[in-house]
Design brief:
CATH architecture of the largest domain: 3-Layer(aba) Sandwich
Strand content: 15-25%
CATH topology of the largest domain: Rossmann fold
Strand order of the largest sheet: 2-1-3-4-5-11
Shape: elongated
Order of helices and strands: HHHEHEHEHEEHEHEHEHEHEHEE
């Protein structure tokens, strides 16, 4: 009578040896990923895939094939905007017994194969996508085999995914309209990357508000950058070098706005007396800068929570319609905007 030779289960020690770290580090990377560096977390995640490790309590359920693990794909883990969305996902997932892994797309070239392997090997039950693109190239056949996915924050109709986001166009329109109501007409826009759908909607909101007020669009008043402090600094340098510099700014993110405010002060301008500035997101720093930033408040925690609830519906076999679920955004008026002191020409 033949005996079945069963392969011994891989252990956390196997993962640690593969990753070149301690077992304690492996444990932290899996259970509290925010407590380790992105580089360490990536090494551990790759090692988990390589050795086929499934933690006790997170191993596949024999009947349903579940790992009780969710993967969040973040465009840039260093951007503070995403922290509250991630927290909304994590808290909601934990309430249902799910572990959350975080994948950072800022280093997509190194991570692409890891993400693809995790999804195709069903080492995660589902994915929450915080950007507008998949973090890997997948053929049509491969996409059919991927676990359920939802999108949070962005809106990309061509991907046909359940989506939770705000109305970026309307929120931007109202932000620019606030500056117009203060008497400003020389309003510049520091925009984010053209490839991001939300940036396209925010730019449309700016353009519509200006046109609705009968103002001509000055293309030199629209400067693009990425969502960084340095982009705000560089954009304001460019704008202030114009023959007729703007007197107000609408920025596609708070971080861009904070960079612009810093540069304005370096160049001897007062905010808001000489330059009114509006941001977008309402990250925590925006409330504590000087002056506090007027900005569009996004319900970031709620976006994460609602996205995870949609994913849970899918995982539990409930029908989820592809399309968008809109949440409300508001303009928080603070000290970085003020009435235009004199009539502009």
């Amino acid at each position: 009578m033949e005996q079945n030779q069963q392969q011994p289960a891989t252990t956390m020690k196997d993962v640690a040896e593969k990753a070149g770290v301690s077992t304690a580090t492996v444990s932290r990377a899996l259970m509290n990923p925010e407590k380790v560096s992105a580089a360490t977390r990536q090494k551990v995640e790759r090692a988990v895939v390589a050795v086929g490790y499934a933690p006790h309590g997170l191993s596949r359920n024999g009947r349903r094939g579940e790992t009780q693990t969710i993967l969040i794909i973040v465009p840039d883990i260093c951007d503070p905007f995403f922290s509250e969305i991630i927290r909304g996902v994590e808290v909601t997932a934990a309430q249902e017994g799910y572990l959350v892994l975080i994948g950072d797309c800022a280093h997509q070239n190194q991570q692409e194969k890891t993400f693809m392997n995790m999804m195709l090997a069903r080492q995660v039950d589902g994915m929450v996508l915080l950007g507008s693109q998949l973090p890997f190239d997948a053929s049509v056949d491969e996409q059919r085999n991927l676990p359920p996915m939802v999108m949070a924050n962005e809106f990309a109709p061509e991907m046909a995914l359940p989506t939770v986001h705000i109305d970026n166009l309307t929120a931007s329109f109202e932000a620019v309209n606030h500056l117009l109501q203060l008497g400003h007409t020389q309003i510049a826009c520091i925009a984010g990357p053209e490839t991001m759908p939300l940036c396209q909607y925010r730019l449309q909101g700016y353009l519509q508000a200006m046109r609705r007020s009968g103002l001509a669009i000055d293309p030199t008043y629209i400067v693009r950058g990425n969502f960084t402090f340095e982009a705000g600094v560089a954009a304001l340098k460019q704008l202030l070098a114009l023959p007729q510099p703007p007197r107000a700014l609408f920025c596609h993110s708070d971080i861009i706005a904070l960079g612009a405010i810093k540069q304005a002060k370096r160049m001897g301008l007062r905010v808001p007396e000489d330059l009114s500035v509006v941001g977008f997101a309402d990250i925590e720093l925006s409330r504590y800068c000087e002056p506090p930033l007027t900005t569009v408040t996004q319900p970031r925690y709620q976006i994460g929570r609602e996205a995870m609830l949609l994913l849970l519906d899918e995982l539990q076999g409930r029908r989820v319609n592809n399309g968008s679920r809109l949440l409300d955004a508001e303009l928080a008026v603070r000290g970085s905007t003020a009435p235009c002191k004199k009539r502009e020409k």
